[in-house]
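USER: Note each token:
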Amino acid sequence: MEQPIFTTRAHVFQIDPSTKKNWVPASKQAVTVSYFYDSTRNSYRIISVDGTKVIINSTITPNMTFTKTSQKFGQWADSRANTVFGLGFSSEQQLTKFAEKFQEVKEAAKLARDRSQEKIETSSNHSQESGRDTPSSTRASSVNGTDDEKASHGGPADAHLKTENDKLKLALAQSSSNVKKWETELQTLRESNARLTSALQESAASIEHWKKQFSVCKEENEQLLSKIEELEEQCNEINKEKERNAQLSRRLQELELELQDKDLELEDLRKQGEIIPQFMSECESVSQKLQAAEKRNKDLEEKVRNLRTEVEESKHRQNNLKTELKNFLDVLDGKIDELHDFRQGLSKLGVDN
């Protein structure tokens, strides 16, 4: 089973296969680059995935060398993949850590190869010793004596050697059968590991995609909350405007009542001017008062018209604000439904995982 032992982020490049000189970007941005250790095969790999695309899958061998070509760039050649990989890091410290890990993994791969060779040599020596023992026993059975002696004394020894030879053949056949079975199991494990690695990569890419979607929705939600606060402030201003309109309406009613009183007063003065002609001097005074009252009445009428105009304008602004608020609430309901659908999709993904 493969497990990550070191992870970093870098821009990935590959050498141009046509020119073998220019670097071709393999990733649009910095991606995750990891060292993986396979405990089953005792091997090390460098793997990097951009979205759902595997851009690095390099098995490290003792013959590989990682070269620093600048303060933030390094490269190594992979003969199996027939290419050269390059990594661009954001700092010299990250490049140094990656190079040190490469050397460490390279030494571990060399040690694993040496141990494997030792096991092969030990197994080969055991096989050679077993091969030498069998002929010597056969030769021992044919030494000394004439043909008659061989006939009289060599029979039991030959039977014993034949029995031992049959046992060795049976053991060899069983060993070959076990090797084939182990090779089949190893191939099955490799295929299963490949499928699991692919599924893990797809799952990681899907999680990254949903994280980005969640981040976008979170930003939209914050923007909507900010817009709601602005609308609440506008609503408070609308309420204040309503209060001012109510005050203007009450003032208008008071002015209308006052105007009615003035009309009644004017009517009374007119009647008094008709009934008492002898009080002409007083009539002149009343006439002056009447003129003043009429002038004041005109002023009041002008004020009433202005107040009515202000009331109409206030009602018009209030209707516009209500229309904007209704449109925004409709948009907000749509965004809330989309956020609800997104949360349900995220919940289903969590259940599937």
Summary: The longest strand covers residues 2-15. The beta strands are 2-15, 23-25, 31-38, 43-50, 53-59, 67-68, 73-78, 83-88.
